[in-house]
Amino acid sequence: MAIASATAYDAIIFDMDGLMLDTERLSHRAFHRAFDEMGYALPYEDYLRLVGRNRPDTEQLLAEMYGPQFPVQAIYQRTNIHYAAAIAQAVPVKSGLRPLLDWLTQNHIPIAVASSTERSGVEYKLRQANLRHYFPVIVGGNEVSQGKPKPDIFLTAAQRIQIAPHKCIVLEDSEPGIRAAHAANMLPIMIPDLKPPSAEIKALAHRIFPTLTEALPFVQSRLKTSITRI
Fold it and tell me: What is d(CA 167, CA 109) in angstroms, rounded to the nearest whole number?
């Protein structure tokens, strides 16, 4: 694990799926169902390789894993049908999220969402979960040229909230997200979801907490309530 630092930070950037919303399990079921309908098997370990990535990277990874004849577009279309039906019913929110967002809002801390999901999907799921009003700044995966683990999406979010990257904390659940936050020179905090962190990710993450509830005191201790924008 990274060496502790007493540096004070000015802002916090959130991932969405798996971090704020308990939607990765819904996504896994949707992918599994689509694979089954198309006559393919989806090992759980293969699905975990897709977590945290944007659509173009996911499509490329599926083609690499299953070969050039794999019907990527058809699988994605069927997955989207099943996933859309699931989130239309309910979008489960992770434990500890609302107290954290309320504290950040009350203390006027700049916050943003930086999600590999396309912008329209981010907007929709946040509205479904009654969370959209917390986030004045959103960056979707389709708004940057390179997805996680590249740092582009977090750097774009920092630019939009007008805070220097090295003054931002990132909350993430996925390995690509932690790599991206580290590459952006931000403070990566991990709250694992489906996949326990590898040795590499443990070395890159500044802290690892089981839930957002446990992460809240640390976040409160590191965020300044008076900030200077760039």
Answer: 12
211 token code pair: 């839930």
| The architecture CATH gives domain 24-89 | Orthogonal Bundle (1.10)
Retrieve residue 13's tokens.
């950037």
CB-based burial label for 138 (10 Å; 0-12, 13-18, 19+): buried
Q: Is 181 helix (H, G, I), strand (E, B) or coil?
A: helix
pLDDT digits (tens, 9 = 90+) for 39-93: 999 999 999 999 988 888 888 999 999 998 999 999 989 999 999 999 998 899 9
Which DSSP helix (H) or strand (E) runs through 114?
Answer: strand 111-114
pTM above 0.85, yes or no: yes
Determine the Cα–Cα distance for residues 230 and 225; give it in Å rounded to an integer: 16
DSSP single-letter state for residue 14? E
User: Domain 11-22+93-222 is classified in which CATH homologous superfamily?
Assistant: HAD superfamily/HAD-like (3.40.50.1000)
Q: Look at residue 52 in the predicted model and tell me its pLDDT.
A: 87
CA–CA gap between residue 114 and residue 97 (Å, rounded): 16
Question: In this structure, what are the phi and psi dihedrals at residue 113, rounded to the nearest 5 degrees?
Answer: -110, 135
Q: Which pairing describes strands 11-14 and 111-114: parallel, antiparallel, or unpaired?
A: parallel
